[in-house]
């Protein structure tokens, strides 16, 4: 079988264009410009790249971008004061504190200080609880991107068997919750799961979010299944530094019905969904109709 390649780059471009059109209409009809504040503490090189990309994408869709770069030794009190200031700023509709934070800062404390209505990462405990009870929440960007691609591929997900490999708060758990809310039969597998291959073989939808390069192979994939690869791992191969997912692409693609590549699969959807969430937060803040197709 030759798997259909799910093109996340093209999908993300469509989402960004859709967001840009909504932003233009919001400005014209209501005089409102959505604003996203991103807070980066310290000099982590990967985080700096993410924050730069977020800034450029935010501007590109016509939103305001507010960047706050703080030194690594910033105190918890100073960071909390900035979060409070952003919570109270009417021009800021979305707040994202880039993770990981330096070790002396308590991430849970900082994230839970963000106004849940502005929590475009969907990491605040209120949003986690709302998602878990099937209520209107801000939903974490990467799982939201995966959900959009799956809905686009299948139409309805009802009754499908989904296996999520990975139980992180950022991807695995919210992904499982979203699939459950769309009426999938959901299994969460992880590093301690027994007979992982057998468990994964039950999946119509297999989501790999374990952070281990190429650990999911053809042996884990049922013929015709859809494989969503959330992993982004840098490895050395043939003297080169390359990006690979949590899925052994060539192996899994030989049996899957559809598969996301790395790069160009889930990755581009994350920032597109961050913009979608900022738009949704803005619409909710002003009592406007929520954009269709851009939320869970
Ligand atoms: N660091 C890596 N991914 C993310 C993300 O989705 N949100 C935040 N805030 N930090 C991250």
Give the helices and strands, then pairings.
Elements: E1 4-5, H1 8-30, E2 35-41, H2 45-60, E3 64-70, H3 76-87, E4 94-97, H4 107-111, H5 125-132, H6 141-154, E5 161-165, H7 172-181, E6 185-189, H8 196-201, E7 205-208, E8 226-229, E9 233-237, E10 240-244, H9 249-253, E11 258-259, H10 266-285
Parallel strand pairs: 1-11, 2-3, 2-4, 5-6, 5-7, 7-8, 8-11
Antiparallel strand pairs: 9-10
Bound molecules: guanine.
Describe the structure.
- Helix content is 40%, strand content 17%.
- By secondary structure, the chain is an alpha/beta fold.
- It has 2 domains: 30-116, Rossmann fold (3-Layer(aba) Sandwich); 141-266, NAD(P)-binding Rossmann-like Domain (Rossmann fold), CATH 3.40.50.720.
- The strands form 3 sheets. The chain has a 6-stranded parallel sheet with strand order 1-11-8-7-5-6.
- Helix 1 (8-30) runs parallel beside helix 10 and helix 6 (141-154) packs parallel to helix 7 (172-181).
- The two termini are 31 Å apart.
- The mean pLDDT is 98.
- The structure holds guanine.
- The site of guanine has 6 residues, from strand 4.
- Guanine is lined by residues 96-99, 121, 141.
CATH class of the largest domain: Alpha Beta
* Secondary structure: helix percent: 40-55%
| Tally of domains | 2
Task: Kindly report the average pLDDT value.
Answer: 98
Low-confidence stretches: none
Please work out how many helical segments DSSP would assign.
Answer: 10
Bound molecules: guanine
CATH architecture of the largest domain: 3-Layer(aba) Sandwich
N-to-C span: 31 Å
The general outline is globular
- The CATH homologous superfamily of the largest domain is termed NAD(P)-binding Rossmann-like Domain
Helix and strand run: EHEHEHEHHHEHEHEEEEHEH
Largest sheet: 6 strands, parallel
> What structural class results from the helix and strand content?
alpha/beta
- Order of strands, main sheet, comes to 1-11-8-7-5-6
Strand content: 15-25%
């Amino acid at each position: 079988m030759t798997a259909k390649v799910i093109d996340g780059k093209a999908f993300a471009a469509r989402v960004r264009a859709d967001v840009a059109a909504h932003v233009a209409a919001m400005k014209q009809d209501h005089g409102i410009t959505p604003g996203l504040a991103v807070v980066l503490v310290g000099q982590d090189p990967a985080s700096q790249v993410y924050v730069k990309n977020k800034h450029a994408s935010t501007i590109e869709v016509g939103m305001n971008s507010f960047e706050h770069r703080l030194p690594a030794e910033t105190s918890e009190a100073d960071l909390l004061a900035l979060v409070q200031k952003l919570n109270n700023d009417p021009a800021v509709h979305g707040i994202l504190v880039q993770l990981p934070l330096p070790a002396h800062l308590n991430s849970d404390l900082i994230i839970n200080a963000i106004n849940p209505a502005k929590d475009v990462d969907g990491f605040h405990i209120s949003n986690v609880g709302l998602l878990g009870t099937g209520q209107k929440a801000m939903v974490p960007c990467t799982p939201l991107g995966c959900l959009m691609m799956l809905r686009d591929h299948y139409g309805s997900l009802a009754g499908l068997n989904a296996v999520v490999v990975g139980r992180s708060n950022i991807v695995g758990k919210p992904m499982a919750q979203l699939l459950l809310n769309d009426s999938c039969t959901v299994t969460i597998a992880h590093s301690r799961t027994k007979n992982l291959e057998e468990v994964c073989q039950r999946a119509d939808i297999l989501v790999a979010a374990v952070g281990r390069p190429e650990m999911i192979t053809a042996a884990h994939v049922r013929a015709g299944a859809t494989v969503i690869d959330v992993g982004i791992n840098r490895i050395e191969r043939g003297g080169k530094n390359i990006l690979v997912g949590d899925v052994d692409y060539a192996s899994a693609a030989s049996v899957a019905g559809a598969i996301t590549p790395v790069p160009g699969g889930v990755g581009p959807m994350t920032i597109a969904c961050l913009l979608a969430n900022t738009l949704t937060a803005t619409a909710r803040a002003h009592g406007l109709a929520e954009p269709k197709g851009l939320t869970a």
